[in-house]
Each structure stands twice: as C-alpha cells, then as structure tokens.
TrEMBL record:
EC number from the UniProt entry: 6.1.1.15
A family per Pfam: tRNA-synt_2b
GO CC terms in record: cytosol
SUPFAM superfamilies, sorted: Class II aaRS and biotin synthetases
EC class (word): ligase
Gene Ontology MF, one: transferase activity
The protein, known as: Prolyl-tRNA synthetase
Keywords in alphabetical order: Aminoacyl-tRNA synthetase, Ligase
Organism expressing this protein natively: Lactobacillus delbrueckii subsp. lactis
GO BP: any one term: prolyl-tRNA aminoacylation
Amino acid sequence: DENRPRFGLLRGREFVMLDGYSFAASQEQLDKQFDNEKAAYLKIFKRTGVEVRPVIADSGTMGGKNSIEFQAPAAVGEDTIATNASGTYAANLEMAVSVDTFKQE
C-alpha cells in the first residue's frame, strides 16, 4: 500500500508496478542479471514508444544494492526526480545524493 494514495482514479491509470527478483551465486552474476533486465525493459519501452527514464530508487524493506524505477515524464504526479546537468544521473528525491562543488579560496 502506498503511504499517500492520492489522485483517486488518476493514480490507478498512471501507476503500474512490476517487481523482479533473482538468485545468483555471486555479486558479479547478480549485477550482470540486473543490467540485462534493465536493458530488456528499456528495449520494450523503446519499441512501444513510451518515453521513460531509469532513476535510482529505494529498495524498501526487501533491501538490496540496486533498485531502479522507470519514470515517465508527466505534468501531474508527486515524484520529484533529481538529475545532473549532463543527464547521466537521475534519482528519486529520497535517494538523491549531491556533491559539494563549491571551492573556497
């Protein structure tokens, strides 16, 4: 259950979730499986014309090292995504990290 179920019927239309779980003998194998599944999802979205962006997400109570969710840009909704200027980093606000680039003289 979501902590803040909002927007009534709109939420049912905009929110779709699919969890994936796997078993691996090593972290290296698990990382490879994760990358393969991410690539498969991106291929599906591209083929169907759905614009998405993979973002770093919270693993929740299941834990784990890696967790991503595919976010589709929308004018409504309550998620905030943090990105860098070059577009190589994207994370849910709950998982976003920052780097202090301020240089004092």
